[in-house]
Design a protein that fits this description.
heterodimer; A: 18 helices; 2 strands; about 70% helix; elongated; B: alpha/beta; 6-stranded mixed beta sheet; about 30% helix
Amino acid sequence: MALENRPLEADPQDENTEERSTVRNRYSRTVIQPLLITLMATSLVTTMLTVLQIGAGQWPWMWMVIPCIFVCLEGIYTTMWLHQPEQRGFNRNLYRAAEILVIILMTRLLTWALSGGWPAAADWMIYLREPLLILWDFYFIFSLLIIMFVWERATFMGYVFHYMAIDEAERTFYQRPTHRQREYERPIAPQRSELMVLYGRNWIWGGIILSFMAMLSTVEYPTIVNDGLVNVTRLGMRPETLMALLVYFGAGFALLSQARLALMNARWLMSSVRKTAAIERSWSRNTLFVLLIVGGIAAFLPLGSTTLIGRLIEIIINFVVWLVSFIVFVFFSILLWLYPAGESESPLTEEPPPQFAPFGQNEVIPPAAPGFPIFGVLFWVVAVVASIAAILFFLRERGIKINSVAFNRIWARLRSWWRTLWLGVKMQAIDWRDALVVRLVRDAEDEGTQPPWRFIRLNALNPRQKLRYFYLSTVRRAEERGVGRQESETPIEYADDLKGGWPATEPDVDVLTAAFLQARYSNREITEEDVQPVQAHWKHIRAELKRQAQASQTDEHKNERSES
Amino acid sequence: MGNFTGFIIILLIFAFLLRVDFIFYIIYVCIGVYGWSRWYTPRILKNLAIKRKFADHAFLGETIEVTLEVKNDNRLPVPWFEMSESMAVELAMGQTMNQVTTLRTGETATFHYQVRGMRRGYYRLGPLRLNTGDLFGLVDEHNAYFRPDYLTVYPKITPLHRLGLSSRLPFGTVSSHQRLFEDPARPIGVRDFRSGDSLRQINWKVSAHTRNLVVKTLQPAISLETAICLNLYDKDYEHVFRYSTVEWAIEVAASMAAHLTSQRQPVGFFTNGIDPLQGQTEELQFDESSGRLLRLAESYAPAYPIPPRSGRAHLMKILERLARIESADTVKLEQWIPSAAVPLSWGVTVIIITPTADEITCQALHQLVRKGLNPVLLVVRKNANFGQLKERGRRLGFNVYEVAEKRDFVTQLAQR
């Protein structure tokens, strides 16, 4: 194998192209580093989410990993975009504020969607009066905290790696021939080695937090209440925690290597060292190679706590912890002995601990205060306007603009559709009005001669409704025959009136009244078999009432004829 | 990286305190990466085989291509290493040899760069500074140097088709065919016996061995040799034009030597200047600005003489000396020339190249004439009293020429 390099004889244009591509480090900057930062930040919060899942498992915490990934990528690419030379005059803080507002809105919607707790219409009325209640949600608050934490981590790392990379001004200046490099044009180089140390510190502290969280995820919390901290039961580590630990440290090492590459790139550029393109290509490969080799070997090593030296160290550490505890105990004991509690003070009485409802559960939304909610309306107006402005600002500056032509076209179509609908409704209303007038006139004409007509399809009713219909239609017919039901009368009392009016229907009325009471006040299931006998009794009563009515009419006609 | 060590210790405490065994795996990986960096980085440069290939002698104005071959003899790939070749300013063509690359196992990287000999001298190429480190920045970088090589740039040579210096004695191979004064102390070979050869000339041992009569061939006793004496005594050169006049004097000497060698005449070289390489036993010191070899501060001894010999290899030796030689405050010409002429045979033409010559110098040259040598004085600087000097030389028995510039050199010498 031979690597042939003719740096002083190659075509200058080709050289420049290669030089630029390696100096700009485009692939590492735009793909590798964002992905690694995302992996690291997400794995850091994954352990937190695992702990939350164990502690408050009624919410789907682990689903928050997905939005965390998106928020990380968004934060990093926004950082890169904001630091492009074209955005130099741009108000970055304002844009960041809009970005945060959009993230908060998205988180609110996401938590509603994931928890399935979309607010009802009544809740919106309450939120209108008390706007801050919309934020008072355990799942939302912790989700937002986690998302903002991961966003801050990703953005911070994005800043660090942005400043470590070679920027356009440095590239332009140092790639000029030496005689054309004006000293007053020399760009101020960032302290890259300090940035690398800063990254290292953040990574290390993140690792410590992660380890602590990993430990917390192994604790069985109910045993803390029962057995205390000392005898707490430990569970095995969850697969997602193991994965998060591996990913965090793997990605951390890879990022450390990337930081080193950025540092070296800047040094090589400033000292006019020519770099072969193979460096960029092989750097990530060599890093992966080292990590896999070391990780593979480490997998075969015994765990530290099982080795003799491990036990020895454990004993030493435990002894040191015990010693520190003992010193603290002695110190406070001496303090208490020197400054005993005053006798005049009233003895402490044990009060029963206050009973709090678990946070986030059965939240009681306070009833809405009467009156017009001016503050709430103002708040929401401001919030909605600010949100829309933030979304538009956030999207517009990234090149996503609302197409006004399409918007106007849609708006014109909506107006046309609305006008047509309105005309249709208007015409329909006119038709209905005319029909109603005609009907009213006809009804007025027919009033007194025809009973009010109402069509009920008996087969469409369920058994319970059928029983009620039988009874109520009987009551209506009886009222028409002059045996009306008083408002204060119970069905059983009214049954006596019916029996008095139509003695022939006495058993039928009892059966019908009992069936009605069952249908109206009982939750017992009523079937068609129950309906059939009652229907027979109802028909008998109806026939009896009709017969009596016809008989009375015949009598009236006879009397009229005799009188005439 | 103290932070990293502290981190491992904190993780270790966490692992024991919190009783999370998996953290041990993380600790192993961290220690492994750290250990790898500490172990492998110092070994990278030790197993790089480097070669520098170039022509170590060049004529003035010639472009020399230097090839650097770096082979990775490690069993593992080299993540990166930086090379920086030190290059003399006088040689650099406005380019530097700073390169960083990576090498797979057994891979060889070849780099080329060019230098140009813009001024005569003895230059150093290198050393090649090598620098490497790990991929994570956990350990310090390591440096190493690859030995330098040396390049000699000969002085400028002006070709002369014919050098017609008049002489009382045979000068040059053309007029030396007659073997009147063969010296038996200077045998140069044997040949077959011919009728008329003296029996004294027979080489009996060789004849017995070859069973054929052969006779010795002897070098002519009347020397056809030429000795070039270059006066580089500092104070003889006018301060303002010292650099250019010295260089011109050296160019004249080199051209004379090259021409005489091309005429197959033995040429020797004597100078009262200083060869910086002479007597250097320790590491050579080079001028940072020009890249030329520096002479020892306490050295004021003239360079060793090169006795007259013929042949191209001998010319290269003279040219190498001329490439390195420098003017110095050593010995005055009139004091040095008698001692320098002691080893010369009778009849040798002595070409003295000097910026100026006064009466004392002429008297010293006259002593050479009286010793049987044939001095020729070449004055390499314009002299208002050149006519007087020439007349004095004629009276004292030697010729004087003024070669103050290239035009004079070519016209005055070549046309005679």
